Amino acid sequence: MKILAIESSCDETAAAVVEDGRKVLSDVVASQIEIHRRFGGVVPEIASRNHTLAIDNVVGEALKNAGCGREEIDAVAVTYGAGLLGALLVGVNYAKGLAYAWKKPLYAVSHVKGHLAANYIDSGLEPPYLCLLASGGHTAVLQVADYEDTVLIGQSRDDAAGEAFDKVARVLGLPYPGGPEIQKLALDGSPVYKMPLPVFKEGGEINFSYSGLKTFVINLVHGMEQRGEEIPRADIAASFQECAVEQLFRATECAAARTGMKKVAIAGGVSANARLRERMADWGKRTGVEIYYPKLRYCTDNAAMIGAAAYYLIRSGEAPAGFGLDAKATVGL
Ligand code: KG4
Ligand code: ZN
């Protein structure tokens, strides 16, 4: 089954053709990062307009790169949420028009499920497994019992991990998006600052919290600025990264112990983080837990992951979406 997938939830206009959920025939991403960088983050109105400008070319290129004509496409899939409403609507309406004109079934895919499905691309991962999802919008640990059967074990009470990376980067004077910049700067520093880490109580809830850590860094930097001190940016970046990763790791370790899961996948933009990957890999080596990571290009937003998720959604017997399909700013985990 060949699925043409479209993604426009934030600042990447993306289209891909994916065969049977695991084989990517084409994967096109038009990033708006450079456009939003000068504003220090994504400006929703500007994102929607740029999706409108890019989407037709992006879809055309995805079909051309896959060597597919409309007759070979079995279904059209699109991200309907979570994300920026105006941005999502561009992809949703384009997909509706295409599905109508081409007489193909249209499927509505959750962006979150897409991030999880990034781990199926070119891999042998199959449920059941545990997934740590860490992106700019979500931080959660989920038990994936089956492709369409996930149980939320814990999530952030406040900010998402990626959001904390972005905000800390901004206070350190680094450009958007902050995650890769912090990772780079941290290489020149050491994690010498002790930063706040939530404690998991035996048998208690598994939650994440990033707002305290973010505020700690902001106050630390502002205090140094007020005292006229030079800011040890690399040491602060390394300390923040260490603490942010430690929290992700501990929650995952705790969830694995409780569920008895021996397969763990990480997903979402923050799963591109080298320190997180290293921490997970060490744990895997020590304990025999199998660790799965998406290829770097499938960690951040893309449409190949939406095509992969759509395949399993269709296989589960999901009915196609009607042409009344709406976009949603939030979707359940
Ligand atoms: O999954 P994603 O592309 O978009 C959302 O669905 O939110 O995630 C974007 C987030 C941003 O906050 C970005 O700073 C973070 O992922 N990110 C990283 C890295 N690469 C991207 N965070 C830490 N380390 C990285 N290497
Ligand atoms: Zn995303």
Describe the model:
The protein is α/β, with parallel strands linked by helices. It folds into two domains: 2-116 and 300-315, Nucleotidyltransferase, domain 5; 125-294, ATPase, nucleotide binding domain (Nucleotidyltransferase, domain 5, 2-Layer Sandwich). It contains ten helices and ten strands. It has a five-stranded mixed β-sheet with strand order 3-2-1-4-5, with helices on both faces. It has a five-stranded mixed β-sheet with strand order 8-7-6-9-10. Strand 2 (12-19) and strand 3 (23-31) form a beta hairpin. Helix 2 (44-66) runs parallel beside helix 3, helix 5 crosses helix 6 and helix 6 packs across helix 8. The chain is globular and about 65 Å long. The two termini are 26 Å apart. Zinc ion binds at residues 111, 115, 135, 269, 301.
Order of helices and strands: EEEHHEHEHEEEHHHHEHEH
Present as ligands are: 5'-O-[(R)-(carboxyoxy)(hydroxy)phosphoryl]adenosine, zinc ion
Low-confidence stretches: none
CATH architecture of the largest domain: 2-Layer Sandwich
Kindly name the structural category: alpha/beta
Question: How much of the residues is beta strand, in percent?
Answer: 15-25%
Under CATH at level 1, the class of the largest domain stands as Alpha Beta
**Terminal residue distance:** 26 Å
Globally, the shape reads: globular
What is the structure about, briefly put?
Helix content is 43%, strand content 19%. It is of the alpha/beta class and 333 residues long.
Topology, element by element:
Elements: E1 2-7, E2 12-19, E3 23-31, H1 33-37, H2 44-66, E4 75-81, H3 85-102, E5 106-110, H4 111-117, E6 129-134, E7 139-146, E8 149-155, H5 161-171, H6 178-186, H7 211-226, H8 233-259, E9 263-267, H9 274-287, E10 290-292, H10 304-315
This protein binds 5'-O-[(R)-(carboxyoxy)(hydroxy)phosphoryl]adenosine and zinc ion.
